[in-house]
Amino acid sequence: MERKIGLALGGGGARGLAHLGVLIGLEEAGITIHAIAGTSMGAALAATKALGMDLRRLEKLLCTLNLNSMLQVSDNTLREVQRIIGRSVMEYFRGSTWKEEAASPPELARLHELFSLLTARKGFADTLVPFAVVAADVETGQRVVLREGRIGPAVTASTAVPGIFSPVAYGGRYLVDGGIVDKLPVDVAVELGADSVIAVDTGAPLTRRVETYLEAILQAQRATSKHLTQLQLERSQERLSGRLVVLRPDVGWIRMFGFEYTEEAIQAGKASVSAHLDELYELAGIPAPGPTATGPT
């Protein structure tokens, strides 16, 4: 019996571009998706699938864009930390501007414009399958699941990495990157009607060398995130009676803002689908296609 397959796409910045490869791979394999939930970069790419966009055309587009330049972010961790410190010092003396009425921080404007274009300025009502975006309330720490209104602003909120981008004013709250509270929104996919879920984990690995105070701080954050994600997955496995497949594309070597490796990230996503096809067909409850018959030449 064919099951209702849900997709749960996590964050990871540039690593999250592997989600596009996964989406393309699932399409090519003929696996139908019935519900999609995404957080951070996963929300952006999940939106394109939910809206029925041409994923191969999107792949070509993303491989030609310089996202580091468009978003004005650097793959240099130290440089980004210096920017955060500089911004914080200015806010200490001048006060925060992102809470001011009608405030439109320039870095958020760039992020919003990118995702508005990627989603063709459409709304949740335009999706072909149930779709949800996960963000976090920066003041309460609560998970916020967005399912109404325009998709672009919701994705902007879900991808607003604290310190790099200002919190997003949305529905009377200030929202930030959903990965803070829910790295892999499997439960949300189930709430959308899925009875089996494919989760795609593109989080940061713990294999990098730690040689500085800054690297130790970042590694501690990654360790906490990895532990919480594992607990969430174990709970989801029980809830779904094992009907959960987790894909982990080989993108751990790509840094959060390493957008120069867009093509490699997408290919890694495709490869992860190919490596687990039998498992995915079994999860979906459909027979794997047999070898293509060839006639005499």
Structural class: alpha/beta
Q: What is the number of helical segments per DSSP (H or I, 4+ residues)?
A: 11
Question: How many strand units?
Answer: 8
> How far is it from the N-terminal to the C-terminal residue, by CA?
38 Å
Low-confidence stretches: none
Overview of this protein structure:
The relative contact order is 0.21. The chain is of the alpha/beta class and 297 residues long. The mean pLDDT is 87. Helix 1 crosses helix 10, helix 2 packs antiparallel against helix 7 and helix 6 packs across helix 7. The chain is globular and about 65 Å long. The chain starts with a strand and ends in a 13-residue tail after the last helix. Helix 1 links the parallel strand 1 and strand 2.
Could you give the topology of this structure?
Layout: E1 5-9, H1 18-29, E2 35-39, H2 41-50, H3 55-64, H4 67-71, H5 77-94, H6 106-118, E3 131-137, E4 143-146, H7 151-158, E5 168-170, E6 173-177, H8 186-191, E7 196-200, H9 213-239, E8 244-247, H10 262-275, H11 277-284
Parallel strand pairs: 1-2, 1-7, 2-3, 7-8
Antiparallel strand pairs: 3-4, 3-6, 5-6
Helix pairs in contact: 1-10, 2-7, 6-7
